[in-house]
Design goal:
about 80 residues, mainly alpha, DUF485 domain-containing protein, membrane, transmembrane helix, transmembrane
Length: about 80
Amino acid sequence: MRALVRVQLRIALQTAALVLAVIAAIPALLAIAPGLRGVRPLGLPASWLLPVLGAQPLWVLAALAQLRRAERAERDHPRPAGRS
């Protein structure tokens, strides 16, 4: 059982690291390309749209991938004897 918990913790930490890297990259992108600050698609500043249109779908996709990987780990992990 501990092995399964370790595998799922590793999966969760990998997912969190990926999400954190992408979310940290959004302000870095705005800092590196200051021309994006003046861009106003749909009448909204790009500095608002990038986090909303970039981060929110990322959370959803990361959560689905996390769930799929955790379920696969549970399926692949052998159950202790005497448990169903």
